[in-house]
Amino acid sequence: MTTARIQEFLATRRPPSPCLVVDLDVVRENYCAFRKALPDSRIFYAVKANPAPEILRLLASLGSCFDTASVPEIEMALAAGATPDGISFGNTIKKERDIARAYRLGIRLFAVDCVEEVEKIARSAPGSRVFCRVLTSGEGAEWPLSRKFGCTPEMAVDVLARAARLGLDAYGVSFHVGSQMVDTGAWDDALADARTVFDRLGEKGITLRMVNLGGGFPTRYLKDVPSAETYGRAIFDALRDHFGNRIPETIIEPGRGMVGNAGVIKSEVVLVSKKSDDDEVRWVYLDIGKFGGLAETMDEAIRYRIVTPRDGDITEPCVLAGPTCDSADVLYEKAPYPLPVSLTIGDEVLIEGTGAYTTTYSSVAFNGFEPLRSYVI
Length: 377
Description:
30% of the residues lie in helices and 24% in strands.
């Protein structure tokens, strides 16, 4: 939903379109909800979701830690007030010189998913803690993250054993059930795999101490999603089922769930047209598309809620597209989007739930369009 603060900002400031407006009060509420839902887990905000300095400073002031994917993100978190011991280098694909730079900045917590990455860390960040990412199916996620990252539980045992032999601290296991995960039971199978890795390494005399539960916590788009409290209960129950009374340290990495519903994009209708006189489907072109920040409409995976000044009028399905000279810049065509028939050129629309993965996906100057402007209030 568009908050009253965002509505007032848009009405009084009249920022040019397209732009993103993020309400920090919502980010604060989301952080407190995660802390309440999983009080024994450390929160590592996924910086890649939205690295706006104002968001990072707020979360640092609340006590959040940070999951980073690159040296620049590490530097952003440090500049916002985070301390090195509250930052993880969570990307499993890192240049060795970036590992060395992170180490010089004080980072001592690194993600791995293969022996080769372990060897790089052993050379450039000796003595650091490492956690190994395990593959998950991603079933039930609107934006699956399987295959590219992670390894099988069997391989994770070998990876962490190798880390220990090289003098690293074999710290734990991580996984990611998939972004925008709406199945609260998705963590159960992943935790079963984590327990297997814990047990196998225990047999080798290596005691793991941490499970990184990853992200996947959703934000509301067109459909309601479970609350943070609901996820917290399901995850805690799964931890008890698989680890009994010896529950390890846990980390969560909310990104979308932390900032998604805090942001709204203001956009403008550039054109409404048809492809033939007898075409029953209109094309509605906005001044923002895939290359302007809405990349997650790829394969129509994420369907945003769009609010128009003509809501309440009769609606018909339409194809929704962006403004660039690229045929891939079509948002919704396989499943046309219902919009008011009266919608016309120049109308301003609000695209809700866009606080995550929009500014960071926005191209720098494709077709000459400037990156998505962002206002954090």
